[in-house]
Amino acid sequence: MFSKILLAADGSQHSIRAAEKAVAIAKVNQNSFIHIVYVIDGSTSKADVLSHFDSGTINKREKKNLSQLKIC
Q1: What is the pLDDT of residues 7-64, one digit of tens each?
Q2: Residue 42 Cα distances to 25, 29, 45, 53, 55, angstroms
Q3: What's the chain's Rg over C-alpha atoms?
């Protein structure tokens, strides 16, 4: 069926549901790969950079958002 699945994720409930669907599709074909792209709103990104000068804080939040996706 599908061998490559592209999942856009931002940590929202919609992206979590999309991840669940991607996993269900990938289970049909054991040779499938899920590629995850972390997406953010441009204005949010700009505000993050202006308010947090270190990338560590921003990276921690991104990792927290992506950790909500339970893809095994």
Answers
A1: 998 878 898 899 999 999 999 988 899 998 888 776 666 666 666 666 676 667 667 7
A2: 30, 35, 5, 17, 16
A3: 14
